[in-house]
Amino acid sequence: MKSQSSQVKLWTTDFILLMLCNFLLFLQLHMIVSPLPSYVQDRFHANAFEVSLFTCLFALSAIAARLYSAKALEKGLRNAMIYIGLTVALLATLGYYFAAGIAVLLLLRMVFGIGFGMSSTAFPTMASDIVPVKRMGEGMGYFGLSTSLAMSMGPIIGVTLLQGAGFMTLMLCTAGVIVVIYPLSYSLTRKKARRVNDEVILTPPVGTAAISGTKVKTPFNRKLILPSVLNCLLSITYGGLVGFIVLYGKEANLANPALFFLFNALAVLLVRPFAGRIYDSKGPKALLIPGAIFIAAGLITLSYASSMSILFVAAFLYGIGYGSIQSSMQTWMIQIVSPSQRGMANGMFLNTLDLGIALGALLLGAIASITSYTDMYRYSIVFMILFLLIYLIQGKRNGGFAVPVHPLLTHTHIAAQDSDRHELTETATENNTTTQQKDN
User: Fold this and answer.
1) CA neighbor of 21 nearest in space, from 242, 177, 192
2) Nearest to residue 348, comparing CAs of 33, 34, 73, 21?
3) Mean pLDDT of 333-347
């Protein structure tokens, strides 16, 4: 029988709208990320390094924007981050029409990265505020599905539009997707954003003072380092896919390599609902270790893809691993921080995602220029080996793999059940000394 807390409503109107806005935001990004290298190579005769810059510089500018966005969210500037970010991204996208050279196109990608970085931090932070505590793994798993599906469907749509209608049509369609987000986000942004402070809404632990409404400085939480490093290593492998799968298809004589992302999406759809429940019941270890193995198997299979059927198998294997790991990383990072640091946690998740993709484009692109795209995907397995080694060594060093949920874990819109309050109060009492030492 399900516990009372697990019956708290997850699929609210706000949650569904947030998923849809987040899906469209990442869809328009990945509609152009994968076809852009092929377009730049054909139009401007760019080499592998120049092609990799389009992914790298975009990601770095998005990371820089999120460093500001996380602080702005703590101050309640959510609506500004969403609408300014969307407007900057839209103007940069329309600017592609005037890009007559590589330098201008690179500049526009950097400007787009700033806009995307601002808006992409707000939606997941809002989602983590309304997901019930007891269903955090499941809720953020479903929310992460919107990102994964967009990352899988976007390249297919983008490559199809580029090959069938040209780059200008692709640009206009991408801009159109951004425009659709404005009215969808209106009902979310018209609700007043609250400035988030660390307020103890639970019974305070014995021997501590109850502080309410007091501004507390939120320094960087060192507990975010491990999941951030792991998320970056995972994203490096994905950077090799979004940046070079089309060029690899030409090398391997594959008819439509962008279909890799379709089967990747099907696998993510299949595994994501189960992954969230497994996370809530058994923690990240049950997903991260087998997920890394599936990703490595998918990459090695991809490197031997001599037909579309082998490509589909590789995509399915990779999708199972990616769908298991990615949402687990985001949930992990949200659970170990206080409510006021959720913007920081989501920013770190997205930043390490973009940083990994940028590093993947640079490092794997360099490998491909020396060897081949086939060898590049085989070498990319090294990053998943590092992923496993770091996770296992750190788990042994910490004496276990359990994720220590922050005792102040709560959410903004849905009141915690009495059972949640009692359990979190006990956790806060037991871990008060440790929490103060590590977080402060």
Assistant:
1) 177
2) 73
3) 76
